[in-house]
Automatic annotation (TrEMBL):
Residues 1-23 form the signal peptide. This is Haloacid dehalogenase-like hydrolase domain-containing 5. InterPro entries: CDP-alcohol_PTase-I, HAD-like_sf, HAD-SF_hydro_IIA, HAD-SF_hydro_IIA_CECR5, HAD_sf. Pfam families: Hydrolase_6. Gene3D superfamilies: HAD superfamily/HAD-like. The keyword ATP-binding does not apply. The gene is HDHD5. Belongs to the HAD-like hydrolase superfamily. One of its GO terms (cellular component) is mitochondrion.
């Protein structure tokens, strides 16, 4: 079901998505080895046939502090000229930052130039949902929300704060923010909202939960009331399903997946129906890994590496997002190899998309969410107490997909393991 859900998300995006992604990212350009972008293979080394998908929080950094093993890992990944020896994409479920800002942040922490087109934020695949780009969308999250939405292609967005200011009587939980004077008359000049973008966890959850519900229940006209809530409701695009994530604290922190859980529960409690998503992306969605696969392939093409990238190694710290997602994508690759992967062409017909990628291995590190001393995440429920499922509601639980291909201490050991398997010098 998870595979089908992700494929449905891909099919919601019209056109040949990998070409659209390349054009929107500005990645279509001349090929050639080492064109000054910080990537090259050592002269004596064969072109790589593998690439890395690296998680960030809990693998490379904890909060704003770099994990020492990450510096060691990149001493192996980067050659004497300061250029990467193999293609690398950073795949994070973070989304409250701009892509180029995240690249600058990683460059400063890791000590080499990270390009923006190497960074995939949780909401990056929203660029593919062009059918919603011209609609008026309510956007939730924090950080550079409007700028992020516009980078993704959304031309007409309104923030939760703008909605709250337009309709001050909607935000009633905080006594300090309730209207103290005469209640203003309802506005009739506020354009209807046509959809909802959930880019990341907001700051004031009660305000965002209330106003998003108002928009869904009123069919985009929160200043009015409807006798019956519309269903299906307005389209909702969401990214980052992580229930938990790891920062400087000893215990994991709430992620955007926790916010989504709250919204889904409230919607079902109020309406008796399930909240539905037109697109649900970020790890472990197959759509995110397809997007990453294409960026890896584009890196290889630009650097003139003639050998196709056949193997991907996904390194992460969260069994539910990193391991589950990589294994789900590996399962998708095997299905595609057997049945043939299909994509929608410009003429609206489904077409097969050839891919050289044959496998995606999951490598779990112990520097973040995963605790090797805690309950075994792959243990099936027997007579013992069943381990809780931290995944999203729309991804049916498959215990086998929680089992990492390898478990190592940190990202440096992970890189050494991959180089050894691929016969590359350390």
């Amino acid at each position: 079901m998870a595979v089908l859900h992700s494929l449905a998300a891909v099919r919601a995006a019209p056109g040949l998505w990998w070409r659209a992604a390349r054009a929107s990212l500005g990645l279509l350009g001349p090929l050639g080895p080492c064109p000054g972008r910080g990537y090259c293979v050592d002269a004596a080394q064969s072109p790589p046939t593998f690439g890395f998908l690296l998680d960030i929080d809990g693998v490379l950094v904890r909060g704003h502090r770099v994990i020492p093993a990450a510096l060691e890992a990149f001493r192996r990944l980067v050659n004497a000229h300061g250029q990467l020896r193999v293609p690398v994409v950073f795949v994070t479920n973070a989304g409250n930052i701009l892509q180029h800002s995240k690249a600058q942040e990683l460059s400063a922490l890791l000590g080499f130039k990270v390009e923006p087109d190497q960074v995939i934020l949780s909401h990056s695949p929203m660029k593919l949902f062009s059918q919603y780009h011209n609609k008026r969308m309510l956007v939730s999250g924090q950080g550079p929300l409007v700028e992020n939405a516009r980078v993704l292609g959304f031309e007409n967005v309104v923030t939760v704060d703008e909605l709250r200011m337009a309709f001050p009587v909607l935000d009633m939980v905080d006594l300090q923010r309730r209207p103290k004077t005469t209640v203003p008359l309802p506005r009739n000049d506020f354009p209807a909202i046509e959809g909802v973008l959930l880019l990341g966890e907001p700051v004031r959850w009660e305000t965002s939960l209330q106003l998003i519900m108002d928009v869904l229940l009123s069919n985009g006209n929160p200043g009015t009331g409807l006798a019956t809530a519309p269903y299906p409701h307005l389209p909702v695009l969401a990214s980052n399903m992580d229930l938990l994530w790891m920062a400087e604290a000893k215990m994991p922190r709430f992620g955007h997946g926790t916010f989504l859980l709250c919204l889904e529960t409230i919607y079902r409690k109020v309406t008796g129906k399930e909240l539905r998503y037109e697109g649900l992306m970020g790890k472990p969605s197959v759509l995110t890994y397809q997007y990453a696969e294409d960026l890896i392939r584009q890196q290889a093409e630009r650097r003139g590496w003639v050998a196709p990238i056949q193997k991907l190694y996904a390194i992460g710290d969260n069994p539910m997002s990193d391991v589950y997602g990589a294994n789900l994508f590996h399962k998708y690759l095997q299905m595609a190899k057997h049945d043939g992967a299909e994509e929608r062409g410009a003429d609206g017909l489904w077409k097969r998309r050839p891919s050289a990628t044959q496998s995606c291995a999951s490598i779990l590190v112990c520097t973040g969410v995963y605790n090797p001393k805690g309950p075994e995440p792959t243990r099936p429920a027997q007579d013992a107490e069943e381990a809780p499922f931290h995944g999203h509601r729309d991804f049916s639980f498959s215990p086998g997909l929680m089992e990492a291909s390898h478990i190592v201490n940190d990202v440096n050991e992970a890189v050494q393991l991959v180089f050894h398997k691929e016969g590359w010098p350390l």
